Amino acid sequence: MLSLKTCSFCGGSVNLGEGTLLVRNDGSINWYCSSKCRKNSISLKRDPRRFKWTTITRQARERRKKKKAGRRDG
Q1: Does the reported pTM lie above 0.85?
Q2: Domain residues for 26?
């Protein structure tokens, strides 16, 4: 069974044999689907919640929409 990993920055899928694996000195493992994600995370130290193209942002927006809809119904 092939195991798909998720990108540590954008939350997208990383196929087997693709992407970049980063193992830090403390033992934490980070997978990156592209150099775009790797550079944003490591070099530029950016927060993935601030970018529209990350799935983390999309999920947060969905939660906010559901929360707002729940308040309107109530």
Answers
A1: no
A2: 5-73
**Cα separation values, 17 from 2, 32, 59, Å:** 10, 12, 27
pLDDT digits (tens, 9 = 90+) for 10-63: 999 999 899 999 999 999 999 999 999 999 999 999 999 899 999 888 888 888
- Residues 10 and 29: their CA atoms lie apart, in Å, by 15
18 alpha carbon, distance to own chain's centre: 16
Give the closest residue to 5 by CA, choosing from 13, 24, 48: 13
For the chain, what is the domain count?
A: 1
Cβ contact 22:29 at 8 Å: yes
